[in-house]
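dude i think i finally got it to work??
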Amino acid sequence: MDPHLRDLRYFVAVAEELHFTNAAQRLHIAQPTLSRQIRQLERQLDVVLFDRNQRSVALTVAGKELLSGARKILELWETTNSSLQEAGEVLRVGLQSTLGRGLLHDLESASGHRLALHPAAWTDPSSGLGGRQADLALVWLPLPDPNRYRWQVLRTERRWVLLPENHPRAGQEMIDFADLLDERFIALPAEAGAVRDFWLGNDARNGRPATIGAEAATPEDRLEAVGLGLGLCLLAENNVPMYRWPGLTARPVTGLPPCELAVAWRADDTRPTILEFAQRAVSGGFAAPPAIPA
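look at this
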Protein backbone atom coordinates (compact mmCIF):
# COMPACT_ATOMS: atom_id res chain seq x y z
CA MET A 1 0.00 0.00 0.00
CA ASP A 2 1.16 3.53 -0.77
CA PRO A 3 1.69 5.88 2.20
CA HIS A 4 -1.06 8.38 3.03
CA LEU A 5 -0.45 12.13 3.04
CA ARG A 6 -0.93 11.97 6.81
CA ASP A 7 2.01 9.56 7.07
CA LEU A 8 4.19 11.94 5.07
CA ARG A 9 3.18 14.87 7.31
CA TYR A 10 4.08 12.82 10.37
CA PHE A 11 7.43 11.86 8.84
CA VAL A 12 8.29 15.45 7.86
CA ALA A 13 7.48 16.70 11.37
CA VAL A 14 9.84 14.15 12.96
CA ALA A 15 12.51 14.79 10.30
CA GLU A 16 12.40 18.54 10.95
CA GLU A 17 12.25 18.31 14.74
CA LEU A 18 14.52 15.25 15.10
CA HIS A 19 12.63 14.69 18.33
CA PHE A 20 9.53 12.50 18.58
CA THR A 21 7.99 14.29 21.55
CA ASN A 22 8.40 17.73 19.98
CA ALA A 23 7.02 16.47 16.68
CA ALA A 24 4.01 14.93 18.44
CA GLN A 25 3.28 18.24 20.17
CA ARG A 26 3.54 20.06 16.85
CA LEU A 27 1.07 17.61 15.29
CA HIS A 28 -1.22 17.59 18.35
CA ILE A 29 -1.12 13.82 18.68
CA ALA A 30 0.21 11.47 21.34
CA GLN A 31 3.90 10.56 21.07
CA PRO A 32 3.27 6.76 21.15
CA THR A 33 0.82 7.19 18.24
CA LEU A 34 3.44 9.08 16.24
CA SER A 35 6.13 6.49 16.93
CA ARG A 36 3.76 3.71 15.87
CA GLN A 37 2.90 5.49 12.60
CA ILE A 38 6.56 6.04 11.73
CA ARG A 39 7.35 2.37 12.36
CA GLN A 40 4.42 1.43 10.14
CA LEU A 41 5.68 3.77 7.39
CA GLU A 42 9.13 2.16 7.58
CA ARG A 43 7.55 -1.27 7.21
CA GLN A 44 5.50 -0.08 4.23
CA LEU A 45 8.56 1.32 2.47
CA ASP A 46 10.87 -1.46 3.70
CA VAL A 47 13.53 1.06 4.76
CA VAL A 48 14.85 2.54 8.00
CA LEU A 49 14.15 6.28 8.03
CA PHE A 50 15.68 7.23 11.38
CA ASP A 51 18.65 6.18 13.47
CA ARG A 52 17.31 6.18 17.02
CA ASN A 53 19.01 5.86 20.36
CA GLN A 54 18.21 7.07 23.87
CA ARG A 55 19.80 10.47 23.27
CA SER A 56 19.18 11.43 19.67
CA VAL A 57 17.24 10.91 16.45
CA ALA A 58 18.93 11.29 13.05
CA LEU A 59 17.86 10.79 9.45
CA THR A 60 19.27 7.85 7.55
CA VAL A 61 20.27 8.16 3.89
CA ALA A 62 16.82 6.81 2.98
CA GLY A 63 15.22 9.29 5.35
CA LYS A 64 16.99 12.23 3.73
CA GLU A 65 15.85 11.07 0.32
CA LEU A 66 12.24 10.72 1.48
CA LEU A 67 12.27 14.13 3.18
CA SER A 68 13.08 15.88 -0.08
CA GLY A 69 10.33 14.05 -1.95
CA ALA A 70 7.77 14.26 0.85
CA ARG A 71 8.10 18.05 1.09
CA LYS A 72 7.48 18.39 -2.66
CA ILE A 73 4.45 16.06 -2.51
CA LEU A 74 2.88 17.90 0.42
CA GLU A 75 3.53 21.31 -1.12
CA LEU A 76 1.96 20.21 -4.40
CA TRP A 77 -1.05 18.75 -2.59
CA GLU A 78 -1.61 21.94 -0.56
CA THR A 79 -1.52 24.03 -3.74
CA THR A 80 -3.89 21.66 -5.52
CA ASN A 81 -6.23 21.37 -2.56
CA SER A 82 -6.42 25.14 -2.15
CA SER A 83 -7.33 25.49 -5.82
CA LEU A 84 -10.01 22.82 -5.49
CA GLN A 85 -11.49 24.45 -2.41
CA GLU A 86 -11.63 27.84 -4.07
CA ALA A 87 -13.09 26.43 -7.28
CA GLY A 88 -15.80 24.53 -5.40
CA GLU A 89 -16.40 27.26 -2.80
CA VAL A 90 -16.36 24.58 -0.11
CA LEU A 91 -14.89 25.48 3.26
CA ARG A 92 -14.23 22.88 5.93
CA VAL A 93 -15.23 24.07 9.40
CA GLY A 94 -13.75 22.34 12.43
CA LEU A 95 -16.04 21.91 15.42
CA GLN A 96 -15.49 19.97 18.62
CA SER A 97 -18.98 18.53 18.83
CA THR A 98 -21.65 16.97 16.65
CA LEU A 99 -24.05 19.24 18.55
CA GLY A 100 -22.78 22.03 16.31
CA ARG A 101 -24.14 20.49 13.09
CA GLY A 102 -27.14 22.84 13.22
CA LEU A 103 -24.74 25.71 12.64
CA LEU A 104 -23.97 24.75 9.06
CA HIS A 105 -27.12 26.20 7.49
CA ASP A 106 -26.68 29.55 9.27
CA LEU A 107 -22.98 29.66 8.45
CA GLU A 108 -23.58 28.86 4.80
CA SER A 109 -26.23 31.57 4.54
CA ALA A 110 -23.96 34.15 6.14
CA SER A 111 -20.79 33.27 4.27
CA GLY A 112 -22.13 32.55 0.81
CA HIS A 113 -20.06 29.36 0.61
CA ARG A 114 -20.84 25.69 0.89
CA LEU A 115 -19.48 24.32 4.14
CA ALA A 116 -18.38 20.88 5.23
CA LEU A 117 -18.20 19.97 8.91
CA HIS A 118 -15.03 18.48 10.35
CA PRO A 119 -15.91 16.93 13.75
CA ALA A 120 -12.85 17.29 15.97
CA ALA A 121 -11.94 15.48 19.17
CA TRP A 122 -11.03 17.33 22.37
CA THR A 123 -7.52 15.96 21.93
CA ASP A 124 -7.14 18.44 19.04
CA PRO A 125 -7.51 21.98 20.42
CA SER A 126 -7.03 23.41 16.92
CA SER A 127 -10.19 21.57 15.73
CA GLY A 128 -8.53 20.32 12.57
CA LEU A 129 -6.54 23.44 11.66
CA GLY A 130 -3.20 22.02 12.77
CA GLY A 131 -3.56 18.89 10.66
CA ARG A 132 -5.16 20.82 7.77
CA GLN A 133 -8.38 18.83 7.99
CA ALA A 134 -10.24 22.15 8.42
CA ASP A 135 -9.97 25.57 6.78
CA LEU A 136 -11.69 27.39 9.64
CA ALA A 137 -12.67 26.37 13.14
CA LEU A 138 -14.94 27.53 15.92
CA VAL A 139 -12.78 27.21 19.00
CA TRP A 140 -12.53 28.27 22.61
CA LEU A 141 -9.37 30.25 23.17
CA PRO A 142 -6.48 29.89 23.82
CA LEU A 143 -5.22 28.19 20.68
CA PRO A 144 -2.07 26.04 20.73
CA ASP A 145 0.98 27.63 19.10
CA PRO A 146 -0.78 30.98 18.51
CA ASN A 147 1.82 32.13 15.97
CA ARG A 148 0.44 29.53 13.55
CA TYR A 149 -3.12 30.90 13.67
CA ARG A 150 -5.24 34.00 13.30
CA TRP A 151 -8.64 34.44 14.91
CA GLN A 152 -11.51 36.79 15.62
CA VAL A 153 -13.49 36.61 18.85
CA LEU A 154 -17.20 36.07 18.27
CA ARG A 155 -18.37 36.40 21.87
CA THR A 156 -17.28 36.22 25.48
CA GLU A 157 -19.05 34.28 28.22
CA ARG A 158 -18.79 33.83 31.95
CA ARG A 159 -17.40 30.54 33.18
CA TRP A 160 -19.67 28.35 35.32
CA VAL A 161 -18.91 25.30 37.44
CA LEU A 162 -20.71 21.95 37.19
CA LEU A 163 -21.06 20.17 40.54
CA PRO A 164 -23.24 17.60 42.33
CA GLU A 165 -26.47 18.91 43.87
CA ASN A 166 -25.32 17.71 47.29
CA HIS A 167 -22.07 19.69 47.12
CA PRO A 168 -21.73 22.12 50.08
CA ARG A 169 -21.66 25.12 47.71
CA ALA A 170 -24.45 23.98 45.37
CA GLY A 171 -26.97 26.21 47.16
CA GLN A 172 -25.04 29.42 46.47
CA GLU A 173 -26.24 31.70 43.67
CA MET A 174 -22.62 32.40 42.69
CA ILE A 175 -19.38 30.75 43.74
CA ASP A 176 -16.05 32.51 44.16
CA PHE A 177 -13.30 30.58 42.39
CA ALA A 178 -11.05 31.13 45.41
CA ASP A 179 -13.42 28.82 47.32
CA LEU A 180 -12.84 26.05 44.76
CA LEU A 181 -9.04 26.00 44.71
CA ASP A 182 -8.84 22.91 46.94
CA GLU A 183 -11.45 20.99 44.94
CA ARG A 184 -10.65 18.22 42.50
CA PHE A 185 -11.37 19.06 38.87
CA ILE A 186 -12.16 17.05 35.76
CA ALA A 187 -9.51 17.80 33.13
CA LEU A 188 -9.52 17.63 29.36
CA PRO A 189 -7.04 15.16 27.82
CA ALA A 190 -3.37 16.12 28.15
CA GLU A 191 -3.16 16.69 24.38
CA ALA A 192 -5.47 19.70 24.78
CA GLY A 193 -2.52 21.64 26.24
CA ALA A 194 -3.27 25.30 26.99
CA VAL A 195 -7.02 24.72 26.58
CA ARG A 196 -6.87 22.06 29.30
CA ASP A 197 -5.12 24.56 31.59
CA PHE A 198 -7.76 27.21 30.86
CA TRP A 199 -10.68 24.94 31.76
CA LEU A 200 -8.93 24.01 35.01
CA GLY A 201 -8.85 27.72 35.88
CA ASN A 202 -5.06 27.81 35.90
CA ASP A 203 -5.16 31.43 34.75
CA ALA A 204 -6.56 32.37 38.17
CA ARG A 205 -4.61 30.01 40.44
CA ASN A 206 -1.45 32.15 40.80
CA GLY A 207 0.74 29.15 40.07
CA ARG A 208 -1.07 26.84 42.46
CA PRO A 209 -1.57 23.52 40.61
CA ALA A 210 -5.03 22.11 40.13
CA THR A 211 -5.92 18.77 41.68
CA ILE A 212 -7.04 16.41 38.90
CA GLY A 213 -9.77 13.97 39.86
CA ALA A 214 -10.20 12.45 36.39
CA GLU A 215 -9.82 13.17 32.68
CA ALA A 216 -12.72 13.42 30.24
CA ALA A 217 -12.59 13.24 26.44
CA THR A 218 -16.32 13.83 25.76
CA PRO A 219 -19.27 15.67 27.37
CA GLU A 220 -20.64 12.30 28.46
CA ASP A 221 -17.35 11.52 30.23
CA ARG A 222 -17.57 14.84 32.07
CA LEU A 223 -21.14 14.23 33.21
CA GLU A 224 -20.27 10.76 34.46
CA ALA A 225 -17.14 11.92 36.28
CA VAL A 226 -18.91 14.78 38.08
CA GLY A 227 -21.86 12.51 38.87
CA LEU A 228 -19.50 9.97 40.43
CA GLY A 229 -18.01 12.68 42.63
CA LEU A 230 -14.59 12.54 40.98
CA GLY A 231 -14.39 16.31 40.67
CA LEU A 232 -15.96 19.51 39.39
CA CYS A 233 -15.61 21.05 35.93
CA LEU A 234 -15.77 24.51 34.43
CA LEU A 235 -18.15 25.27 31.56
CA ALA A 236 -18.95 28.13 29.22
CA GLU A 237 -22.21 29.80 30.22
CA ASN A 238 -23.90 29.01 26.92
CA ASN A 239 -23.05 25.32 27.39
CA VAL A 240 -24.76 24.89 30.74
CA PRO A 241 -28.09 23.59 29.28
CA MET A 242 -26.36 20.67 27.56
CA TYR A 243 -24.95 19.52 30.92
CA ARG A 244 -28.28 19.25 32.69
CA TRP A 245 -28.38 15.84 34.36
CA PRO A 246 -30.19 14.37 37.37
CA GLY A 247 -28.20 15.01 40.53
CA LEU A 248 -26.04 17.75 38.98
CA THR A 249 -26.30 21.53 38.95
CA ALA A 250 -24.26 24.47 37.66
CA ARG A 251 -23.45 27.87 39.17
CA PRO A 252 -21.73 30.99 37.79
CA VAL A 253 -18.18 31.53 39.06
CA THR A 254 -16.72 34.87 40.09
CA GLY A 255 -13.00 35.62 40.18
CA LEU A 256 -12.35 34.11 36.74
CA PRO A 257 -11.80 35.93 33.43
CA PRO A 258 -14.48 35.08 30.83
CA CYS A 259 -14.00 32.52 28.08
CA GLU A 260 -13.85 33.54 24.43
CA LEU A 261 -15.38 31.77 21.45
CA ALA A 262 -13.52 32.56 18.23
CA VAL A 263 -13.45 31.75 14.54
CA ALA A 264 -9.87 30.77 13.69
CA TRP A 265 -7.80 29.96 10.62
CA ARG A 266 -4.16 29.23 9.78
CA ALA A 267 -1.85 32.23 9.54
CA ASP A 268 -0.46 30.99 6.22
CA ASP A 269 -3.94 30.73 4.66
CA THR A 270 -4.51 34.09 2.98
CA ARG A 271 -7.32 33.06 0.63
CA PRO A 272 -9.85 35.90 0.26
CA THR A 273 -12.67 33.47 1.08
CA ILE A 274 -11.14 32.73 4.49
CA LEU A 275 -10.68 36.38 5.43
CA GLU A 276 -14.15 37.26 4.16
CA PHE A 277 -15.67 34.47 6.24
CA ALA A 278 -13.97 35.75 9.39
CA GLN A 279 -15.04 39.34 8.71
CA ARG A 280 -18.67 38.34 8.26
CA ALA A 281 -18.52 36.35 11.48
CA VAL A 282 -17.33 39.33 13.48
CA SER A 283 -19.84 41.69 11.88
CA GLY A 284 -22.68 39.52 13.12
CA GLY A 285 -23.19 37.19 10.19
CA PHE A 286 -23.94 34.31 12.56
CA ALA A 287 -24.78 35.78 15.92
CA ALA A 288 -25.19 33.65 19.02
CA PRO A 289 -24.40 30.17 17.65
CA PRO A 290 -25.62 27.19 19.69
CA ALA A 291 -23.51 25.90 22.55
CA ILE A 292 -20.26 24.15 21.70
CA PRO A 293 -18.50 21.98 24.31
CA ALA A 294 -15.58 23.65 26.06
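The first strand starts at residue 50 and ends at 52.
im so relieved honestly
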